Structures are given as C-alpha cells and as structure tokens.
Amino acid sequence: MIDIKVPAVGESINEVTLVKWLKQEGQYVERDEVIAELESEKATFEVNAEKAGTLKTVGKEGETLKIGDVLARIDENAARPEGAAASNGSDHSHTTVLSPSPTATAAPAHAKAPAAKPAAQGPVTAVTNDIKATPVAAAIITDKKIDAGTITPSGAGGKILKHDVLDALAHPGRTPGKELFTRADRREKMSNLRKTVSRRLVEAKNTTAMLTTFNEVDMSAIMALRTKLKDKFKEKHGVNLGFMSFFTKATCYALQEWPAVNAYIDGDELVYHDYCDISIAVSAPKGLVVPVIRNAESLSMADIEKKVVELATKARDNKLSMEEMQGGTFTITNGGVFGSLMSTPIINIPQSAILGMHKIEERPVVVNGQIVIRPMMYLAVSYDHRIIDGRESVSFLVRVKELLENPDQLLFGKDPLKALLEL
User: Fold this and answer.
1) Order of strands, edge to edge, in the sheet holding 64-66?
2) Domain 2-75 falls in which CATH fold?
3) Residue 169: in which H helix or E strand, if any?
4) CA-based nearest residue to 57, from 77, 41, 37
5) Would 128 disulfide with which of 52, 101, 124, 400, CB 3.0-4.6 Å?
6) 78-134 pLDDT, tens per residue?
7) Alpha-carbon dihedral of residues 384, 254, 308, 346, nearest 10 degrees?
8) Taking Cα atoms as reference points, which of 89, 107, 96, 95 lies closest to residue 46?
9) Active site annotation includes 389
10) Domain boundary assignment for the chain
C-alpha cells in the first residue's frame, strides 16, 4: 500500500481544495492515470496515480487539505481485474466536445478529436457551443438545431445528457426542472480561485490610483484583411486569424513607445521592461485566469495566434501551470465576446495598466464630412495614475487605435512609406 500525498504547487501555497474524485473508491487504476482534481488559490491541477492498483480514497470532495497530507492510498498488490488491459494512464471517456465558433475573444479552442468515433457522430461537429455532451445528446442537439447554451446540464463536469435535451424540447422558453415563483436560496462554498480573484481585485482598487481613458477604433481595415486572407492564413499556419494577434501586436508597439505603461512600482522604484509579456484574461470553468504570452513583441502574428489557442485551450481544460499564469507586464481583456459595449477593466496588479476590448458594433460615423456606417469598437485603458500620466495613457491608446486602423503599420510599427523615406 502506497500513499498518494498532496503535492507542493508553489512556494506561497500551503493548502488546496479537493474538487472531485475522477476515480472512485475500490476502482482499479493504472500508473499515471488521473485520479483527482485539486484546486489551489491560483489554479486547478490533477493528481496522478504513482502505481497501478486498487484505489482507497482518504480525502473528501470539498475538503481543504494541507500540502503533504495523504490524499489516497493505492494497493499495488491488488490483482488486475479480468479483461482490464493496461491503459498507459489514458482515460477515454465518452464525451463529445462541441467546438466554439470563432469570435473576437482570445481564440477558439482546438481539441484533438477522440479516436474511432462512430460514424453517426459526424454531424455533431456542426454544433458551435463550448460545451460537453454525450454522443446521443449531441446528435439530438444537431438534428433538432437546438441552441445548446440554453440546455441545463445534469451530468458530471457539466456534461449534457440525453434527458437534458429532451427536457429542453418539452419545456421551450424556460429552464427545465425549475419551479415557478420559487423563493429558495442556496449557499456554495467560495473556491480558492474565486477567493484569490476577489482579494486581488479589491487590492487593486485600494492600492492603486486607478483611472480609465476611452477611445474607439474603426475595425473596417482589420475585418477586410481577415476576410481576404483568413483562409490562406489558416492553410499556411494551421490556425485561425483572430483579432487577438492584431491587438497584441499593436499593444506591443505602443508599449515600447510609452514604456511607463509597461512598467510597475516596486517600493520606491519604478521597474521598466524592455520586453512585452502580455497577459490575456480568459474566462475558465473555475473562474477568471490570466495566462501570459512571453516576449509577445518578438512573435509573429501566427505565433501569437498559436499561443493564444494553446493558452485558451489549457484554461478551458484547467491545465494551466503556475508558470504560465505568473508574471506579465500588461493585460488585454475582451468583454466584447460576452456582449459588453463599454467597461472599465480593473488593473491586474502589480501591472500598471490593462486594455479592454469590447463588442464590434456597426455605428454611423463621420468620415470626410459624410455619415457612413462602420464596424466600431470602444477601447478602454485603465491605468495607475501614480506611474502613468494622462498624456502617456491617452497617447498610448491613440497609438493602439492608429495601428489597428492601419494594420499595414504593424509590420514596422510605422507608416511603410515613412519607413521607406526614413522619416
């Protein structure tokens, strides 16, 4: 019998919460197979079986455990059940992942398709919601053309089951299983991740002189460029051409022109960075996480898009490591994917500024004295006025706007003709 202990996950983390058991008491598990999901104040991570054998659970779901506590025990001398072949740690559950459609957010997640799917599941790929569903449920969703976002899942891990879909069909217009005129309340224990997010947001509000400046950007040029070249881009690089690469590239040029926006306060010193580590805010199943694109100023558009897809996929699957979420010199957040027209984002401390993207909306604007309809987006930069002056914050945002409205400048960071003439 060997003990499986709670692993150390960071220097400052002393305890974790046992979110759920992925394998049950008495079940035979293979070596390196995932048996449980734990959550620290910064991330969710998995625990693997160190040996093959029969599992004996010790910790309880929802329980707070100290680093080094015994989480489970494995009887490595137990006989392997008949017909159970070694799985090399793989756990192929029968879940169909319905891929999200491309939006202005970080990037669509590209998950590997499970091997050897039945032919009947082919049409499921047409459903465009970032959810999980059993094969039968997914087939009904596709056949009946149901908006899967309106279905209340009852399966483990938020999985949509067959009866969930049938309930939605039987009760259109309201949430299945909900009583009318209910006055019930319910309480849930706040997760470690939510506690950390809450603490950091309050700390940002209380310890910085935060101010927000706004502008708007005409997205016509970028949208025309994407329409013209997105197919060739995907064929060449194997990834979609999204909006995040344009915003990240423009932000990096603007940060290098206005270095105070890329700096932070450390005691009585100002720390400036000659690089741009761009944090991207991602709404993950457990809450908001902010993974980092390292040295974004040195990456190509394709490299940025690939990194965004990688980080967004890991965030969705709770696979982000501590290293991938630490650091960052500037943050970009996109409330537009949820329909936000304008907001005042909160600084991701110890950083000094954050750029907020919003919904693209066709609006009448005046161009050369004529009223025309253009796809417009409001931009917001919240900044710490202790280190960034109004001139710097406004000029930074104007520069981002200029680069986005003239994407040909993203190659050199300036007008190509001016670069040619060395002006």
Assistant:
1) 44-48, 34-39, 15-21, 64-66
2) OB fold (Dihydrolipoamide Acetyltransferase, E2P) (2.40.50)
3) helix 162-170
4) 37
5) 101
6) 778 776 555 444 443 433 333 333 333 333 333 333 443 333 333 333 344 456 778
7) 20
8) 89
9) yes
10) 2-75, 96-170, 192-420
> Which phi-psi region, left, alpha or beta, contains residue 229 (left: φ > 0; alpha: ψ -120 to 50)?
alpha
Place of tokens 């936000």: 340
Average pLDDT over residues 303-317: 91
Rounded to 10 degrees, the C-alpha dihedral 411/253/330/240 comes to -10
Contact between 30 and 91 under an 8 Å Cβ cutoff? The reply is: no
Question: Which one-letter DSSP state was computed for residue 337?
Answer: G
H-only helix segments in 8-152: 135-144
Residue 348 in contact with residue 354, Cβ under 8 Å? Answer: yes
Specify whether the CB–CB gap between 380 and 198 falls below 8 A: no
What count of other Cβ atoms lies within 10 Å of the Cβ of residue 85?
Answer: 7
Q: Is the peptide bond before 259 cis (omega within 30 degrees of 0)?
A: no
**Is it the case that residue 396 has pLDDT exceeding 60?**
yes
Higher pLDDT among residues 109 and 23, named by residue: 23
**Coil/strand/helix, residue 404:** helix
Residue type present at position 115: A
Q: What percent of the chain has pLDDT over 90?
A: 42
**End-to-end C-alpha distance for the chain, whole angstroms:** 74
For the question of whether the overall pTM of this predicted structure is more than 0.85, the answer is: no
Place of tokens 């059993």: 134
Q: Where are the alpha helices (DSSP H) in 276-369?
A: 301-316, 322-325
CA angle 272, 280, 259 (to 5 degrees): 20
In CATH, the number for domain 192-420 is 3.30.559.10
**Per annotation, catalytic residue among 91, 143, 147, 389:** 389
DSSP state of 104: S
Q: What gap in Å lies between CA 311 and CA 292, rounded to an integer?
A: 8
Among this protein's residues, is 358 annotated catalytic?
no
Lowest-confidence pick of 120-124, 146-150, 221-225, 410-414: 120-124
Identical fold, 2-75 and 192-420: no
Please state, as a whole number, how many other Cβ atoms lie within 10 Å of the Cβ of residue 243: 26
Which of helix, strand or coil describes residue 73? strand
pLDDT of residue 236: 94
Q: What three-state secondary structure class fits 19? A: strand
| Mean predicted lDDT score pLDDT of the chain | 82
403 pLDDT above the threshold of 90: yes
CA distances from 138 to 114, 354, 391 (A): 15, 38, 53
**Among 241, 215, 246, residue whose Cα is nearest residue 228:** 241
